[in-house]
Write a structure and sequence with these properties.
315 residues; alpha/beta; TIM Barrel; 2 domains; 8-stranded parallel beta barrel; two-stranded antiparallel ribbon; 13 helices; 45% helix; globular; disordered N terminus
């Protein structure tokens, strides 16, 4: 779909032109016949900065990581729309040229709340989001005991999202996620995703796939709808690489724990050493300047200089 907010980069009369909305860029990436989109999971501005430094073309804001990092809580529905939107806005605007896909849980209520979620995520520069069919008091897709709403309720959520996107002239990519594989069966999950596609969803997200063969069949049965693979290490789904995901038929692969799992190990090791020895043992190369460089020191200095300032001389 063409967006009233979709704009191209460029210069006019020596002035920078408006940036293309990241939703338009993500939509073009999804519709392209080129490879699989790889999006590492980030949970705050710092982890996002690292992913940008490495050079990823797309990022994914993990809901579980947001709950853990922002609230210090498990992924059991603690996070509100405001919690998630605020975190997504920070991440999405660090580099608006790199699209962000963000978890939007159940849409946070009925059709009006789903519409509000779409509008707020769009204004926050989020490129795509996924809405699921769990009950409001949801939980991580790789925990047991999940419950899902009736298919009609799920389709209503997707319909509300699609209509809201149209009203505001957005290109936001709407990803329909179902957890019905665990609560019902494979056929029911496929049925729900096909209904979501008919309602206007752009991408399918079948949570908790248990084998490569199951993944392959899902992509075949859902075609021509693009399919997203949630690669949660040591969860329900076997380890699948981006190349394997592409061969199986997936268009997007996300790695929600790619940042938060190693962060836990590294931080805990330093804290244990500090408690036991009184020293952190940090590498001498990690200076304050290095930290600030990672999070935009050069860019901030350049803006100040270009405006005629000299606040950061000698930094």
């Amino acid at each position: 779909m063409a967006s009233s907010n979709g704009m191209s980069n460029g210069t006019q009369n020596g002035r920078l032109g408006p940036l293309q909305h990241p939703a338009t860029k993500l939509r073009n990436m999804v519709e392209s016949s080129e490879g699989v989109i790889v999006a590492p999971g980030v949970y705050d501005g710092f982890s996002a900065r690292i992913a940008l430094e490495v050079g990823f073309d797309c990022l994914y804001m993990t809901g579980a990581g947001t709950c853990a990092a922002k609230l210090g809580q498990p992924d059991l529905g603690f996070a509100t729309l405001n919690d998630m939107r605020e975190n997504a806005e920070i991440i999405a605007n660090l580099d608006a040229s790199i699209p962000l896909i963000a978890d939007a849980d159940t849409g946070y209520g009925g059709p009006n709340m789903v519409a509000r979620t779409i509008a707020q995520y769009h204004r926050s520069n989020v490129a795509g989001l996924h809405i699921e069919d769990q009950i409001q008091t949801k939980r991580c897709g790789h925990l047991g005991g999940k419950q899902v709403v009736e298919e009609e309720v799920f389709v209503t959520r997707i319909t509300a999202a699609v209509q809201a996107r149209k009203r505001i002239g957005s290109d936001m990519v709407i990803i329909a996620r179902t957890d019905a594989l665990q609560t019902h069966n494979f056929d029911e999950a496929i049925k729900r995703l096909k209904a979501a596609y008919a309602a206007g969803a752009d991408v399918a997200f079948l949570e908790g796939l248990t084998s490569r063969e199951e993944a392959r069949i899902a992509c075949q049965q859902l075609a021509p709808m693009p399919v997203l693979l949630n690669m949660v290490e040591h969860g329900a789904t076997p380890s699948i690489t981006p190349q394997e995901a592409q061969e199986l038929g997936f268009k997007i692969i996300i790695f929600p724990f790619a940042a938060i799992a190693p962060a836990y190990e590294a931080i805990k090791n330093v804290f244990v050493q500090l408690k036991q020895t009184g020293k952190t043992g940090l590498d001498s190369s990690f200076t304050p300047k290095k930290l600030f460089t990672i999070v935009g020191l050069k860019e901030a200095t350049a803006i100040d200089v270009s405006a005629g300032g000299a606040l950061y001389n000698g930094v």
